[in-house]
Amino acid sequence: MQPLWHTDARSKPMWVRAGFEITGRLFYVLAIA
C-alpha cells in the first residue's frame, strides 16, 4: 500500500489536493500558536 503522496500529482483527485492544502494550513497555524 503506497502513501498518497507517492502517487502521480496528475492522478490525484481534487479532494486529495484540497485536503493537503487544508492540512498544511492547519499545521502552519498550529506552529505559530
Descriptive overview:
The structure is a single chain. The chain is mostly helical and 33 residues long. Helices cover 58% and strands 0% of the residues. It has 1 helix and no strands. The termini are far apart.
Rg, Cα atoms, Å: 12 Å
Largest sheet: none
Gap from first CA to last CA: 34 Å
Secondary structure tally: strands: 0
Sequence stretches where pLDDT stays below 50 over 5 or more residues: none
- How many helical stretches? 1
For the residues shown, what is the average pLDDT?
A: 76
**Helix percentage range:** 55-70%
Structural class: mainly alpha
Overall shape: it is rod-shaped
Beta content comes to under 5%
- What is the string of SSEs from the N terminus onward? H
Protein name: EamA family transporter
Identify the notable features of this structure and list them briefly.
single chain, 58% helix, EamA family transporter, mainly alpha, 33 residues
Brief description of this entry?
The chain is about 60% helix and about 0% strand.
Secondary structure layout:
Blueprint: H1 14-32
